Amino acid sequence: MVKYPGVAKGLYVASQSGKPALSVVDILERNVQENTTLVQVKIQSGRPHQIRIHLSFIGHPLL
């Protein structure tokens, strides 16, 4: 992942030299009132910031 040039902080794109990363997410508990979900994430590759980037990409940023 590399920062996207000229765009606000926090936007990343896959780089040509990037390595694959796999995260498996299991939902443990949901709280509709607080709009939160407790998850367990198993990472298969251990890349820096992998969990944060994967969850943010699918619209579920970490709190």
From TrEMBL:
What's a Gene Ontology MF term here?
RNA binding
InterPro entries assigned to the protein according to its UniProt record, in alphabetical order: PsdUridine_synth_cat_dom_sf, PsdUridine_synth_RsuA/RluA, RluA_PseudoU_synthase
- Annotated Pseudouridine synthase RsuA/RluA-like domain ranges read 15-56
Q: Which GO terms describe its biological process?
A: enzyme-directed rRNA pseudouridine synthesis
Concerning Gene3D superfamilies, the annotation shows:
Pseudouridine synthase
Which positions carry the signal peptide feature in this UniProt record? none
PANTHER family for the chain: MITOCHONDRIAL RNA PSEUDOURIDINE SYNTHASE (PTHR21600), RNA PSEUDOURIDINE SYNTHASE 5 (PTHR21600:SF88)
Task: State the protein's name.
Answer: RNA pseudourine synthase 5-like protein
Source lineage: Eukaryota, Viridiplantae, Streptophyta, Embryophyta, Tracheophyta
